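Figure 2 data, in text form.
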Amino acid sequence: MNGLSAVLIVVGLFLVGGIVSFLKQDMPKGLIVLLSIGAAMCLVAGILRMDWLWG
């Protein structure tokens, strides 16, 4: 795992924590959906950039 993939995964997990926090605060659903899309994109990009995954 290189540095960029680790950063992307950490940012994705941070955004997931924000989603949980926003759900508890009853924030607007559009904001939660937007945050969810960003978190999913960060996590997927971080996983796809892992060196051991592709050999």
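Caption note: The mean pLDDT is 93.
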